[in-house]
Design brief:
Peptidase_M55, seven-stranded mixed beta sheet, 7 helices, Peptidase_M55_sf, M55 family metallopeptidase, five-stranded antiparallel beta sheet, Rossmann fold, 2 domains, single chain, 12 strands, about 280 residues, DppA_N, alpha/beta
Length: about 280
Amino acid sequence: MRIYISADMEGVTGLVEADDVQPGGRDYERGRLMMAEDVNAAVRGAVAAGATEITVNDAHGPMRNLLPGSLHPAVRLIRGKPKQMGMLEGLTPEHDAVICVGYHARAGALGVLSHSFMGHEIEDIWLDGRPVGEIGLAHATAAALGVPVAALTGDDRACSEMTEWDGSVTTVAVKYARDRFAADLRPAGEARTAIEEAVTARLAAPLTTPPTVPDPSTLTVRWQSASVVSTLLGIPGVTSTDSRTVRAQGALPSLYRLFGVWMRVAASLTNQPPYC
């Protein structure tokens, strides 16, 4: 059994604010170790369920958060950037399941460190008219590759978002949002045990067939800055619905890769920190 883990950071056990998850933050070094422990809990669960190959993609920010020496010896780590497929770099149809560790709710939701990919620069995203964030877009892209999302860990709002998108996915809430930068935390040991046991149970059971994804799909993104939109309109196939909203049609996962190009363009124009 080949398992793919996409590891974000905002939804990791114990982390609640930017200084926990941004390089240079006063608690970042502690945060990256907490991230590794959540990932290791998922890895132990996968190994117990019979996984023979486990790929972990460091999917947060600079994508150099996980220290190779801090990870379970069974892990093959994808680290650094740029990555053409970003948070899903290395995912292929040969994988049997995806596990999302440390995920967070989309922009506008009152979840811990909630946003969609780029802090406040991205205000809203829709996939085929449905509001979506990192959770839904990852799920849909994995489904287009024929790989089911088996489990997700994060705060309770991230878990609810995943359940609304696909109720068959097992979720583990490691903290409960009180506000965007405050949470009621589960004890770390309890949270990691819950992750490990949930992953083992889900992977030991028959995996569901991923839902059918429309082809083509339509991705619509509303940005904070009109300058981003005016620049993105230079990309063939990109159209605008107003001065701050662009859309494009295409097949996933190619559309996901195109969205990554949009974000790199936006980052070059705005240089805005997240969580403002």
